[in-house]
Amino acid sequence: MSCIGLIFTLASILNTFFHYVSKAEAQHAKNSVTLDSSLERIQNNINLLAELGNKAREIHDKMKAVYGDESPSYDMAVRWKRNFQSGHMSLTDEPRAGRPSIKDYLTMVKKVEAVILDDRRSTMERVMAETGLSYGTTWRIIHEELHMNEVFARWKAKVQKSAGKVMLFAFWDSCGIILTDYLLKGEALNSNYYCNLLEKLHDALKQKWHGMISKGSRLLANNAPVHMAQAPVVTTHRLGYELLQHLILR
């Protein structure tokens, strides 16, 4: 076979390969489209399912399988598919005169919140029926104004990330707090850190009690390993303190 014939044969094979790959990808996308959970993504998902040839009932069933009670109703799926096919690509109403004022919008928010607080298992359709609001407006109020998510068919406030735990060291006597110190994030709690902390305590005591510290002081520590390690114990004695330990009751 000539070089030219070999090239044409390879080109034909590659063309056939990509044809079947593209066809398989399209079929896979049609059968198992991954749906996202924001209003804009819902809009894109419905449009994509319509473009892939899904009927309104199929679109509704697939949205229902992912979003549950928060999914658009069948009638909405029919209307939105029709809108997309006619070139209207938004789930929300077109801008028009007489849009609600801030006062009216806040009233809408309160209505939606009241329905959900009355029954946290309320579906999107029930909230819409009770308030008379559109799906887009209801969705926006729930997620963007009330900051709620549907968890196990119940509306719950979004959980904010914790700032994390912070370790506080506090030293005090019968008259009150002498010294507080926070372990910074990423800093290791070890013998070196605790020895430096004892030095800070010694300076704080000298400022508070002046010459009285030379008469001797007692330091009560728990039995944590870092407190009873060799270096902190040596530092405690060097600074002139008598180290007392907690009694362990059995």
From TrEMBL:
Organism of derivation: Phrynocephalus forsythii
Keyword Protein transport: no
Signal peptide: 1-26
Example of a GO MF term: nucleic acid binding
Domain of life: Eukaryota
InterPro entries: RNaseH_sf, Transposase-MT_Hybrid, Transposase_1
Protein name stated in the entry: Transposase
Keyword list, A-Z: Signal
A Pfam family of this chain: Transposase_1
